Amino acid sequence: MCVLTERATQSYSPAVAHNTGVCRMSFRALLASRSDEGAVTTSLETLQDDVLVDGDVDVEIAWSNLNYKDAIALAGFNIIQSFPLVPGIDFAGTVTASRDPRFKAGDSVVATGWGLSQTHHGGFAQRARVPGDWLIALPAALDPRNAMAIGTAGLTAMLSVLALEQAGLTPARGEVLVTGASGGVGSVAIALLAGLGYRVVASSGKPAEADYLRQLGAADVIARDTLSQPGPPVAAERWAGAIDSVGGQTLANVLAQTAYRGVVTTCGFVGGRELPSTVLPFILRGVTLAGIDSVEAPRVLREQAWQRLASDLDLDLLASTLSEIPLDAVPATAQQMLGGGRKGRTLVDVNR
Known about the structure:
By secondary structure, this protein is of the alpha/beta class. The chain is built from 10 helices and 17 strands. Strands 5, 6, 7, 8, 9, 16 and 17 form a 7-stranded mixed sheet that branches. Strands 12-11-10-13-14-15 form a 6-stranded parallel sheet, sandwiched between helices. Strands 1-4-3-2 form a 4-stranded antiparallel sheet, with no helix packed on it.
């Protein structure tokens, strides 16, 4: 009988396993399981590649990253829908085999969202097999590490910028607010907007991070509390546009303060799923509220966003937002993230 998993107890390098006369590749992965009581637990395992199914492109993963969605998935929120499963909503690496004519061995690719960490093994592993439709060939200016420094958070930030531009927002219109500024989406959004010439105001609940946010390009930093308390449905106009990743009362106040024909994008709900607002900002000021979804964004839009990230994002500036962790540190780091103890982007070195 073939054994598909065994607990990893020492440092690992890829090896070929021979079972029942069949040559199979083993790889290291973080595996999430659910107890009878519903608790989600993780363990570092050595898996065989025949656990990889439902895909026509095999990828040797070089880097993954840790997003807020990963953190809530590991905390037991209803993200992972099939157990046991390798979590991780992002990965980047090199194609090793392909039955999809769009990709060949040696191509550098990135995958974000889709079914990763929900119904399909994700990026917290050294190998993956996915449908070709889920992959984007990396622009020449980006390598797998850069791609995971950007990841879902950076892709979401770029999709938000594209939505602002599509609505006609230009730097001449006025200030653009970024909420949740020290998080992954916020950090990349500030860098992108500032690089495109917008005057960016960052909203953060971490006063100690003000210098960090200004280094990214924020012209001003305001306290989170100025937006998190109940306020009037329409207030003095301030923002020409905004990128919000907080939701809840914060988003309601942002809408109330948005100028005539301004545009606000929303992509998160760390501050709450409810929107305690009214129709007044939309009717009296013609404000646009644009929802941003990066999980199932159309392929053509993803390709546009990755090309813009390659050309518009200062990678040296992005480097100042990065920290790196090994695969076995993911669960503890996810807990820190849920407690607000992380800033910027967290890279996961799946080979360490």
